[in-house]
């Protein structure tokens, strides 16, 4: 379940990773110079076939988790869907930054966007929510919803742990997720991009996940 | 720039300025030896002159900074690719300024997190290689989430290597991931073991390829990944 995993940092003891949905939890063990290892301490109510005590590297658990990933339609009353459209992600609070001259947010700005971004200045579009469907990204903040059709989305990259850099047409956007996983958004965008490519041949470049 | 990001960058810049006052790169290596038992292998492979590409893996900020500092110790004329933010922020520029670089902007090549926008800087890198310069570049394009070398690599390094036939000298760090994993970047651990390993120079083609096809580029990129992965695996 989305955002169910949470890490508990503990000062004198090993960190814990918990699933708030099924109550399974792992003990985090750091091996300096090597990696992090997670030992399953309880399967919770999930009834998972794995034995308590199973320990794997973080990469191995991550691979196992990715194998179970599917795009499942959600419902969120805040977004009106088009006929036949499927909603895959609905964010919590997000801060959005846009180019200062973006006509979608600043109606009197020039419509053309340049390739050279060295002189570009960012402006805040405030706080709102971001939605990902199989056809579009929708921003709901102040003012009317802004729609970014996926066929105009060129790339979606995670920037360190800070946010999601989107390039729609030649415009840049940066979404800072305040309460949820950046990696979740990159992952879902990549999955949706894969579906879009299979359906239309249109390619969206995304971060590794 | 929003206040939180601005504040974080300013705090980092303050630390870097303090580092410069206390000794710059020498202090960085001394601290790394004390805290992370830093080991450097194969530094003799770094060419001291002539065009050269230094692809490095992108594990964590401390490991990346050490890899960049190692390259700069042997090639002070190296140009570095660094992420360019939407508000013009460039952490690598702050790093270089912190190390005492007089004109950090000149040493920087800007990598944008957007499709195609780095093309101009790649062309600049291509021209610089033609003039005999060295270029350091995070070959994966972004920091790993799980510690593993990401596949495929971003195509920039392979494209430059094919267009110029310049020698490629991979520099990898191992052991840096657990110091500051990407999912917990706010926490830099002050213990660990980091090894920087420099590979033997090699080329991806015998002569410059004027127009590398997608297939040729992919094959070169895979070869580069194999070389870097083999170097990372030497520690296993």
Shape summary of chain B: globular
The greatest interface between two protein chains, and residues involved on each side, is: A-B, 42 and 44 residues
| SSE order of chain B, one letter for each helix or strand | HHEEHEHHEHEHEEH
Assembly classification: heterodimer
Helices of chain A, by number, come to: 2
What's the number of domains of chain B?
A: 1
How many individual domains of chain A?
A: 2
Ordered list of secondary-structure elements with their pairings:
The complex is a heterodimer of chains A (209) and B (236).
Chain A (H helix, E strand, L loop, with lengths): L4 E4 L7 E4 L5 E7 L3 E8 L12 E3 H10 L19 E4 L3 E6 L22 E12 L2 E5 L5 E4 L3 E7 L3 E6 L2 E7 L4 H19 L4 E2 L3
Parallel strand pairs in A: 11-14
Antiparallel strand pairs in A: 1-2, 2-3, 3-4, 4-5, 6-8, 7-8, 7-13, 8-9, 9-10, 11-12, 12-13
Chain B lengths: L2 H20 L1 H13 L2 E3 L10 E5 L4 H14 L4 E6 L6 H8 L5 H4 E5 L6 H12 L3 E5 L17 H9 L6 E4 L20 E4 L15 H20 L3
Parallel strand pairs in B: 1-7, 2-5, 3-4, 3-5
Antiparallel strand pairs in B: 6-7
In words, what does this structure look like?
- The complex is a heterodimer of chains A (209) and B (236).
- Chain A has 209 residues and is mainly beta.
- Helix content of chain A is 14%, strand content 38%.
- Chain A has helices at residues 58-67, 182-200; strands at residues 5-8, 16-19, 25-31, 35-42, 55-57, 87-90, 94-99, 122-133, 136-140, 146-149, 153-159, 163-168, 171-177, 205-206.
- The longest helix of chain A has 19 residues, at 182-200.
- Chain B has 236 residues and is α/β, with parallel strands linked by helices.
- The model of chain B has no long low-confidence stretch (mean pLDDT 89).
- The chains are: A mainly beta (209), B alpha/beta (236).
- The interface between A and B is large, with 42 and 44 residues.
């Amino acid at each position: 379940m989305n955002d169910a995993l949470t890490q508990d940092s503990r000062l004198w003891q090993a960190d814990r990773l918990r699933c708030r949905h099924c109550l399974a939890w792992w003990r985090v063990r750091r091996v300096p110079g090597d990696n992090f290892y997670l030992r399953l301490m309880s399967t919770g109510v999930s009834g998972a076939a794995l034995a308590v005590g199973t320990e794997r590297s973080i990469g191995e658990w991550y691979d196992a988790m990715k194998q179970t990933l599917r795009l499942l339609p959600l419902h969120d009353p805040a977004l009106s869907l088009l006929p036949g459209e499927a909603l895959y992600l609905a964010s919590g609070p997000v801060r959005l930054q846009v180019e200062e001259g973006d006509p979608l947010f600043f109606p009197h700005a020039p419509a053309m966007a340049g390739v050279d971004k060295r002189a570009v200045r960012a402006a805040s579009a405030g706080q709102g929510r971001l939605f990902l469907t199989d056809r579009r990204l929708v921003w709901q903040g102040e003012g009317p919803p802004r729609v970014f059709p996926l066929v105009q989305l060129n790339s979606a990259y995670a920037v360190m742990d800070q946010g999601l850099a989107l390039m729609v047409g030649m415009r840049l956007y940066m979404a800072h997720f305040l309460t949820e996983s950046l990696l979740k958004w990159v992952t879902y965008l990549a999955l949706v991009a894969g579906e879009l490519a299979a359906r239309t041949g249109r390619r969206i470049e995304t971060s590794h996940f | 720039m929003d206040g939180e990001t601005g504040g974080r960058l300013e705090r980092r810049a303050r630390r870097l300025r303090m580092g410069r006052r206390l000794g710059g790169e020498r202090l960085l290596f001394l601290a790394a030896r004390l805290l992370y038992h830093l080991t450097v292998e194969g530094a003799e492979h770094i060419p001291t002159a002539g065009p050269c590409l230094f692809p490095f893996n992108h594990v964590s900020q401390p490991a990346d900074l050490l890899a960049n500092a190692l390259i700069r110790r042997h090639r002070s004329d190296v140009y570095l690719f660094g992420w360019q933010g939407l508000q013009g922020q460039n952490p690598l520029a702050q790093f270089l300024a912190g190390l005492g670089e007089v004109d950090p902007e000149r040493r920087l090549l800007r990598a944008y997190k957007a499709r195609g926008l780095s093309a101009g800087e790649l062309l600049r890198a291509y021209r610089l290689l033609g003039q005999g310069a060295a270029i350091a570049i995070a070959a994966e394009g972004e920091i790993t989430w799980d510690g593993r070398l990401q596949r495929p690599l971003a195509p920039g390094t392979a494209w430059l290597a094919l267009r110029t036939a310049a020698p490629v000298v991979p520099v990898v760090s191992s052991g840096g991931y657990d110091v500051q994993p990407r999912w917990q970047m706010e926490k830099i651990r002050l213990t660990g073991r980091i090894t920087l390993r420099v590979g033997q120079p090699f080329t991806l083609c015998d002569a410059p390829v004027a127009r590398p096809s997608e297939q040729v580029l992919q094959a070169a990129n895979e070869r580069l990944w194999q070389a870097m992965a083999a170097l990372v695996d030497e520690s296993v």
